[in-house]
Amino acid sequence: MIDLSKYNRAAQILALRLTGQVGPRTFAGLMTHFKTIDNILLAEEHELLEIDGIGEKRSEGIGKAGELLDKAQQIIDNLDAYDAKVSDFMDNDFPDILQELNNPPPLIYYKGKLPTQDEKRVAIIGSQNVSAEGIGDAVGLAEKLAKAGISIVSGLARGIDTAGHVGALKADGKTYGILPCGIDIVHPSENDGIAKEITETGSIISEYIPGTPVSPGRLLSRNRLIAGLSQAVIIGEVSDESVGTLDAALCCHQLGKLLFVIIGEHNPHYEKLLEFGAIPLTNINEYEMILKALV
Fold first, then answer.
1. Which residues are 208's β-sheet partners?
2. Domain that holds residue 257
3. Closest to 146 measured CA to CA, from 170, 115, 178
4. What's the whole-number mean pLDDT along residues 149-157?
5. Number of domains, the chain
6. Which of 7, 25, 28, 165 has the fewest CB atoms within 10 Å, measured from its CB?
7. What percent of the chain is modeled with pLDDT above 90?
8. What are the tens digits of pLDDT across the range 13-42?
């Protein structure tokens, strides 16, 4: 019998994740069935096979989580080396709003300060290759919202994401950057300075352990956290190849959250977003519409 008392809750969850068989959706299903993490780790294979979507290969993998507990605890204990912390879904500081997702992350790693439960947050996202006008709109809108006490969420990517963070920082506001990789990696690396500024009042956040590289799947998975952490999403300039931005808009639509898009001559590809129910903003001075919607 495994002595689970030797390992904290985050390490127990991480051990399940390290098996490679327990993603956020599977973890949610396991918790629904077994009620506690201890029960999951001590479950017999025949018990795991009772759950829809768990076959022999997955149940065998989950059964090996106990062998990974020491490794998991070491990863958690070593977060201090990256000036990072971890919060699990049962911690008091874990953002409750993420629980609205169908597949909330069971663990998040962060540098800085996690969002508080009562603050208003708006995501500003868009393409990486954008015009000077598009950058100016995103910076200006983020600055106006931050001055009004709204925190800005984005993905630290080039282009509109960076502009959203910069606008919030210009206003001495809070901003949160969601990473598609380990908490020790800033992507892209040129935003390392901005990331450090962000952590002074806000935080950079990841659902991945240190050392996890960027991948196309993780870039898309990040979008659900950006939308999930925000009460509304604003999309700036987009291109006809903005797969990630459109995916984030779909996440927002599925969650029933407010979606806005900045329209204009420099942003001719906004029509697709209107199909998701996006509310058009003809200029950044219409930000008061967003403030009223958040009340």
1. 182
2. 121-294
3. 170
4. 97
5. 2
6. 25
7. 82
8. 999 999 999 999 999 999 999 999 999 999
